[in-house]
Protein 1
Amino acid sequence: MSKPFYITTAISYPNGPPHIGHAYEAIATDAIARFQRLSGRDVRFQTGTDEHGLKMAQAATAKGISPQELADEMANQFIVMCDKLNVSYDRFIRTTEAEHHKASQAIWQAMEANGDLYLDKYEGWYSVRDEAYYDESELIEAEGEGGAKEKLSPQGTPVEWTVEESWFFRLSKYQEPLLKLFKETPGFLKPDSRRNEMIKFVEGGLNDLSISRTSFDWGVKVPGSENHVMYVWVDALTNYLTGLGYPQETDLYPKYWSEGGDMAHIIGKDIVRFHTIYWPAFLMSANLPLPKQVFGHGFLLNRGEKMSKSVGNVVDPIALADAFGVDQLRYFLLSEVVFGKDGTYSTEMIVTKTNADLANNFGNLAQRSLSMIAKNCDGKVPEAGPKTDAEEQLASDMTACFSNIKTLMSNGEFPIHAAIDLLRERLSATNQYFADQAPWALRKTDPARADTVLYYTAESIRQLAIMLRWVIPESCDKMLDLLGQDMDKRDFGHLTDAIVSGLTLPAPSGIFPRLEMPEADG
């Protein structure tokens, strides 16, 4: 019996509408969650919004509304995005929820009880945009307006010198435990390049961390210090526990966290430090189990350039989905981007890729073969005659493909793109089988052999639709509808349940329309 599996995205900071980077993380995490569900595992998938902090307060002020009004408005946009992109989350968490405030205060009190919090004065550099504190040695110098020198964070964001009373967390105390975690549990942080970066950072020495603010009040109140609100990352990271009912006694927490269920945080590479240094240190302090894995994926680039509002190349994912199709967008992002590395996209790339793989390869194969069944077999799955070497090869290659995909997706690296490459090879091979056997010609000379070819083509399409269902769920379900497959026979456990001869099929219809190249790229 496989362990339960808990998977999360980072919660999105909703001081602006969702962009394609948010969509990519949600889609990739959804694909992993769906793969695990199709494998028969008990999966819980959580996403949400991180609604506190100075950035939100400032964005609300600029709009002339309260932070809560802004949070409500923007959180809804992220929910709409997830629903539009067929993201199968079990829980959408908002950090403004009362139960999340209780969870954040509970972990705070656990850290305090362990002697790891103390009151002092913070003086140092703070980036509002990153919601992060930086040491002087981490800053970079850039030329500002009029040639004046200005200090920027490692991410290139403005920093400001901040002085205020603050609660501190004894992060320095956890330097050696964290190094031990990285070195003795290499699977904790993937890819390995990110783990090496964090080892180097920790080896450089850890300073105690300022974890409260008094200069604004939009956040979770610090227990016993009502004029302080928690540093946004303390409450943001706690969301992963809140969604399982912590600190209450619930069924979810022991199943997915404390009793050793498998789990993974899927996050962007720019927030690895928060998730693999601050978060495990907080959990160690609170005597809580650590997450099993953190995976830091790369950035999605618009024609090779990082997206920014100032450049004007930020793209609305819902507009892309409306223009090209939800599954077309999902397929492109999951197949084109090497998971863990930066990837690039353009509308031309989306059109070219999805036309080649989905319209020409998968869709055309299904349309041609199912139309022949409708026309020549009274719309019923034909009887299969004896297998030739061609059918034996088709079947054994399909079995090997699934075995290889399972191996790939269980190694902790989640090489989604490589798994899809294997499926694309099988699609092409099935097309080649169909073309080589030419059932339209056989129909005139050997109708029984033509029926056999149509049967094994339909069976291959059935298996491919099941194996691709975690990537493009809606389209694969339409394909399985055309093959007359019950909803409860569409997971990996039913791959070996061959399609039944004599089954009446609905009239075939196209699933992947060819996309047109846009006149002007938006």
Protein 2
Amino acid sequence: MENYLSILLFGGVAFMTIVMFLAAKPKPAMYLAAISAVTAAVGGLLLYGYGFITTIGDTTLAVIRTIFAVCRMFIGEAEYESVSSVAPFGNGWVDVLFWILHLLAVYATATAAISAIGAEALRKLRVWLVRWGELNLIYGANSDSLEFARALQEKNHGIAVFIDEAPELSDPEEISACGCVLRTDTHAVLADRKLLKSLGIRRGSRKVNLYALKKDPSANLLYAKRFLKSLEEAGVTSEQTRLVIHARDNSSASTLQVQSDRYGYGFVHVFQEASLAARLLVRTYPPCEAISFDSEGRACEDFDALIIGFGQLGQAVLKSLVMNGQFAGSRFHAAVFSPDCQSVNGYFSSSLKQVIDHYDISFHPYDARSMQMYEYLAQRGRGLKYVAVCTGSGKLNQEISEELGDFFQDMGICLPICQCTYQGIRLYDAQLEHTRMHFLYDPDLLSMQVLDAQAMLINHYYRNDPTGDPLDNWMKCDYFSRMSCRASADFMPAALRAAGKSREQVLAGDWQLSETVLRNLSETEHMRWCAFHFCMGYSPMSAEEYDAREAEYLRQRATGEKPSIRVGKNTAGRTHACLVEWDELDALSAREAAVTGIPTDYKNKDAENIRIVPELLKTRSNPQ
């Protein structure tokens, strides 16, 4: 009886393990089942084949008996007695192998059976499983969000629940096939309290991630607001929540992010596909990789870029290269080739006038296959450091890249060509004839967990509040400041390359920088900071405005008021006194300190971002 109960218990546990594994990770489970089936079949043919040919002698009959025996393996039956008299059967290791092969065959059959007849049961089990652990909600069922969910699973980020009243998929069953759950019911679509209850969302420590990835940005914004209202009613803390939303612009984030006087999502990331592709570009091939640096951390060459195409994608790429292509000792230049660049860059040039004024950007209204383009390359091609093809068409990108690759080869230029589309980034190398696609909807790019951990630390050090908590300070941080900290974290590879250090070296404690190297890296960081603000629409503060703000600050302090303004920063007017050359920061720091009575050293703030690189790397090694 005890043996019977033991077998029953073991069998039950094994069966439930298969069910849970198939529910949580269907793709790996099916792969494992396929491998098990092949291994069992091949091993069974070898063992049974050898046994029967030895005992029967007749080859034809032995083959038939072997096939039947292997088929019976998959329904849990074994013919051990028929072959056990043949050596090496009876040997411990051979017998263990024999029964392992039968176990693999049964596992393959059980997996197939559960998958075939238990689809609804598996769906209910997945719904039950999502009530525990970190929860990923994806609003919008389309090809991009499905690819994102698959990537989440591959990175062991748990089961995703899709919500969509009208899935934009040719076969919605693909969602179930990748181990996720699709909900189209009214409670899910309205994001009401019953949805929260059914998913086990309540006040506590459980993280809830909402990815609003529908192709309609206004629908994403409406759903995020509905879900936020339900979260607030349920008493879920802001710290538990993250929102990643595809929206038209960043301004919508200000209404969704937590503030000191308003409930909101604790972590918010708003993206447009063009800006996401541009960010993926500089992560895939950082501008710092395109140039060399001397032993003192200064660039040895100017950063010269070529951008082909100037629609939304090309404009986003130009902004991203401006923000990430600034290095001490280097000048930035970008040439834009697009037949309509003069007619489509009105908004860019007017809203980002400071970018046009401060950086050497030339516009050429010619096709990338034109004579004018290749005359330009003949003159300046050898100085190019970066090429981005952003026509909006993958086919045209490839055609242009192949022609450019051949031209560069003929000139003896070794330069990868970056192809940018709304699907992702592809690096083309003519010498290797090799391309690799980096897909846009990547969890590392969208989840923000690693990047926010680094940005949070940058913000903490910037506030210079040794008694404060990084998370508490982050919760008080406005969205623009969070964007600034994230941009700084994104630039960290440039600090490593300029310093000539690897990630492993720094984590091992090798970040002792000479005064000269620290100064040069700090200047680079200041140049990056200025570029970011210019790309966000900021302008240098005029002397007249600074004088007026200084006078207002002194007036408020003289009347006993707590000053309500920062002298050198006008957020509403998007002006900043620090948008000056590196060498001017000392005088600015001294003047502000004399007015406020608060020690100020703007150069040291840039240097602090360099000093904390080891701490930032630790957060990447141990993401929250």
Protein 3
Amino acid sequence: MGDIIIKKDKPKYGLMENIGFLLKNMWRWDKGLFIFFLIQIPLLVLGPLLSIYLPKLLIDSVTKAVSLKQFLINIGVIIVGIILIETILKASTLKSNIGGFKYRLKYIQLQVDKAIDTDYENIDGPQGQDKMMKATMATMNDQSGTQAITTVLTGLLSNIMGVILYGGIIFTIHPLLIGFIVLSSLINYYIGDYANKFEYKNKDNLAPVEKKLRYIRTKAGDFKAAKDLRLYNMSSWFKDMYDVFLKDRVRLQKQNLSRRYLANSIDGILAFIRDGIAYGFLIYSVLYKDMTIGNFVLYFGAISGFSNWLSAIVKNLNDLNRVHLETCNLREYLDMEDKMNRGKGAELPKEWELPCDIEIRNLYYKYPGAKDYTLKNINLHVKKGEKLALVGVNGAGKTTLVKLISGLYTPTKGEIYINGKKSTSYNRDEYYTMFSVVFQDIHLLPMSIERNISLQLEEDMDGEKLDRVLRLSGLIDKVKSLPKGEKTLLVKSVHEDAIELSGGEVQKLMLARALYKDAPIIILDEPTAALDPIAENEIYKKYYELTKEKTSIFISHRLSSTRFCDRIVYIDSGEIIEEGDHQTLMDMGGKYREMYDKQSHYYKDKIGGE
């Protein structure tokens, strides 16, 4: 599937910045978790220290022939201390695990809130989707950075404390032992750091593969996709593509694991050499330098512990670096900047100022990463209450234009005015209230029909308004035929007793939703594409009623619908090339006439023609 591409971009945030970010949030969200995190640090050092001191005390007590009472006191105090420490550690570890899980869930909630609230443009393209996937990988499980920070920092700080204490003990034997152990650990750290940085950069390759695998897994069980999979024998294609992307994922993971394996192998070799030299020196000291057996046991445990502390520090530092890099991914997603105005905005049009006037001046739009403009030098004035049709071939830029008008995208150049005020001067969420939009890509919510239309709680719904929009949209007969009527649930993948609406019925439901919102500007993007000609003609007959006292923009490939509009704008390759009413454009004999003539037999046969 192509060679691996490793990007050289440095992380946006520093290590200490990310540690501060995570700890500040921990203190803000769960002070108990933060306190238990601190409690564990000294106990994780004190417990092992008592454990290596106990054998020395036991041997020294025996060799010095202390009394039984003194022996029991010496041993008992240490044993009780170890038991107490272990008990407190187990309790605090349990609290940390539970608290850490809840702490990670907070970040997942932030991700969800960001996805719902950020400007649509931020998550509409591949860059935004990649950021979202990498952020998800930072909160995926208990080993992910947002939860692992508690165990990694606890381990790191306790290991540093252990190195200091144990190092002091070993220093009394020979300072060079400490230097040799530290040197081998530094080598391990840099090799582990190399593996971590490779994994971080390799996520740019892994995230798109994960997205494709998730898409295939999701669609394989989707009710709508399942029909096509079977009828068009697409199952084998899905399986083949899943295998291809899975192999791609395995190949990328192997790249990560091979470097991790190299780091672990070198760690094992250095540990063997390091421990061999240290233990050999201790044995030499017992045999030839009068070291007592008790001290031998203590130093033996100290050297072993010191090596373990250092190895653990290396692992902790590498894990901390991984946490840091994953936190970078999370923060880069959460910190995506919104372009639309989120503060105080211009005042919305008053009732007496409606319907709205829309003016587009010198508008250009280029998608992120694209070389060419999708829309170029668009100048268009939609008058109050005007019914405008946008027509043109697929990919001409019609949907992009209405997304710009409705505030989902922001212009690359140029301005959009609503009632004489720049679209960017309005508060974004207030601006959205001026639009009722039906797009081609439709997503139903796993709720009742009435809630899918009103997007309100049952107690807040307007029954008369709901009944009116059901009639206007042509969905009333379908709803009346259902045992539960408008309370019938949708989305079978969530509710067992839900129903599945046909494509045309779904479009009618979306039209009803737009009408229920009752915004002053209505935008309909192919609202009748899934309807049969008779149902489509019924909608057209109601078009004036549907858009009464509204400014409306209507996109359609079926040019018969354009005759119901006041004005028609033909867009080609991102530019307006023809403009006028139906008859004017027919007389012009341009692109509109050419497209209309190609479709005219359909209109004459099905709707009656001219």
Protein 4
Amino acid sequence: MEYETMEFDVIIVGAGPAGLSAAIKLKQLALAAEKEISVCILEKGAQVGAHILSGAILEPRSLKELLPETWQDAPLDTPVSNDLFYFLTQKHAYKLPTPKPMHNEGNYIISLGELCTFLAAQAEALGCEIYPGFAAVKVLYNDQNQVVGVATGSVGINKDNEKTDHYQPGMHLLAKQTLVAEGCRGQLSQKLMVRYHLRDKANPQTYGLGIKEIWQVSAEKHEPGKVIHTVGWPMNHATYGGSFIYHLSKQRVAIGFVVGLDYKNPWLSPFAELQRFKTHPFIRSLLMGGERISYGARALNEGGWQSLPKLTFPGGALIGDAAGFLNVPKIKGIHTSMQSGMLAAEACFEALHETSGLQQELTNYTEKVKNSWLEKELYAVRNIRPGFKYGLIPGLINAAFETYITNGHSPWTLQNHADHRTLKLAKKAKKIDYPKPDNVLTFDRLSSVFLSNTFHEEDQPCHLELKKPQLAIDTNLKKYASPESRYCPAGVYEIVEDENGPRLQINAQNCIHCKTCDIKDPRQNIVWHAPEGGGGPNYSGM
């Protein structure tokens, strides 16, 4: 079969903060050296920022380094003015000292999508080519097992859960170096990790699911720049989770809840936990009289330093959250993702400048990370997140010890575990009684998905694959009471009864690309593929 091809020096998969920072840095280095480097960025969202979701508070360290003269032109919505931390019981909120890693002096509450739109404009001004609406669905290799680029197009599953001939190869984009910046749990990243054994010496990655709403609140309740984090209720003390409440501009407040995907109870619903959280008197008083205007959800890496894979492979590298550079105790990953992209760009430029750069491994990137503040920052907090596997109170005690006593220099490193292995059998777990939505403070999943502006073409094949369809009944339903029907924040999965008995129905048109199913399925039976380019949520202003 003949494919249309395009050739570049560097292809970057993903127009998030890591990918765009890498592109900008590459062009800056080329300009300074009076060299020509062609850079192409592929983005599966309909436009840059459409699939980007984060809290988000920006630590501007990397932005200042990348754009020293113009960083203040970025959409830095609201400077943080107040930092608060609370422990919640069912009826009360107890103010505690804000943990040191969570201090936000000099930081900004932002929309990460808007920041990416700004960075994309900077990249294009420097000569980068950006193609939104094009999903990279396949890695291309040569006979020497080197990555030589990616293919665009779509991969689909038909109603019988079989791969279809609908795969449209689109184009083959060839490059001397390919930087993969897909974000958390990227499909190409996962395949590259397996093919090149990039995780062999790393702990399993562990994840959280972050669910976010934006509310318009009354003027007298709005305090621009106010930042609140909470732990405790509605989570039980055995389950890792917490909330954020960020006061942006224009009477907007971002309400978010993160649940660690290592939770054990298959009856738990992260979406329902956020809805229940909003009924707490402390939160209810803020939201009553307001209006919910946006909704979204996204998985995030929580493994930290010990879960970082080998970063490079022949012909490219993993950058940003494709590798897992989130600083969990800080609850920040934008500055670390940007820094990883910038360091990869430096290594990439050196390879292209000193040699042909043709598919060689960017070992300098790994060395640059090791010698930078990036690894030092992640190493210092490596034991905080895994300490919570012993429960909330032991986790808080361990976090205080690591932060204030050893300063991250404990002579041990706690280990992470794979999230899909943690579920109890449904019959051995306590059912959770979630109240029905009142459509004032609390809502159902379908009305929430509507606010995410999610759209997939009706005639495109399903992008969610079951490796063995019968496992959805024999294992997930019979042993775990179909946990996918609860952990999915978009109502994609539901058990329906027909004349042949129960079956799993997949409502792929609802999918908001959070990747939770790909992570949490107990038998790793669900595989998330990128749908046709441009499909999915449109997180405008999120």
